[in-house]
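Chain A, query sequence.
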Amino acid sequence: MNRLSARQLAAAALVTDAFTLFCLRGGLSAVSAAGFLAGALLQLLAVAPAIGCISAGRGLFSSGAIVRGAAVLLLIGWGGALFAMLWRTSGVVYIPWEDKGPLGELLVGTALAAAALYVTSGGLRTLGRCAAVAAIAGGLCLFGIALSALLTSDLENLSVRRTADSFPRELLRGISLSAGATVFAAMAELTQESTKRCTALYFAGKALLGTTVILTSVLVAGGVMELAQFPAVMAAQLSQPFSSQRIDALFMIVFSACGVFAAAALAAPAAELTGRLFPKIRRFRSVLVLGLMLGTGLLFSWQETAGELFALGAPAVLFLTGAGAWLKGRAQR
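Chain A, predicted structure.
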């Protein structure tokens, strides 16, 4: 596989995080931002064994079959969760065909999977460059919304605490948003730059992204937060920093781009690992992986509890996968 730079790796992981934040459901408050930051810290601890393996010269792609198989299942599971998020959010961002029922949702998911397949066909370097462009566009969009929120919104919204708020609850929500951390851990060894630098760059960006999205959503939609099924989407729809252009049109473009590149970022390492585990299907590995992601997404869409349990347990699986690779490396030395 070709290599990624530290910035490209961070961009791919952050684009994945951005999509999950856009699809976050339920009311938000300043307590949510604190829970997200604490959850990000726990995710850092979850990826620590995998980063330790890479620093020792033994990463995921050179690990045993069990570790690689667990990583594939984790990546496919997050891909399925991503498609389930897409289908749940599509009604409020007005994606075409969504109103056609299950068939329409499947068409939307298939279109996104096809776009992700096209991106992954160009290799990791193409994925990294595209993710970097999407990250820049998303950053500009978020900056516009955040600036509008600071200038026109009521700062007292930050001090409002909803009755359902509690730090433990918001911490669990923060822990469950680990798709980007999974992408980072899976592809961190595919960059020749310092793993410490890559880790610092990604998690600093993750903290900034999460707090900005959450606090901006609170500033813009705080007055109607109880009615906001998807706070980030509502914030984009209510914000209008430019008199001649509605920001929600730009958000729709950014939302779609993040969805495509998030799926590609999860599918690329999963496909490579699948090809190494099963050489006979190497030629069709990307199609197989994305197909399994779609199927998993249908399961999580029909059984939301299964998707929620997966998201909560994913950091623990990530930690155990990295720890298994680290222990095997020590045993071989």
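The CA atoms of residues 6 and 194 lie 8 Å apart. The chain has a mean pLDDT of 82.
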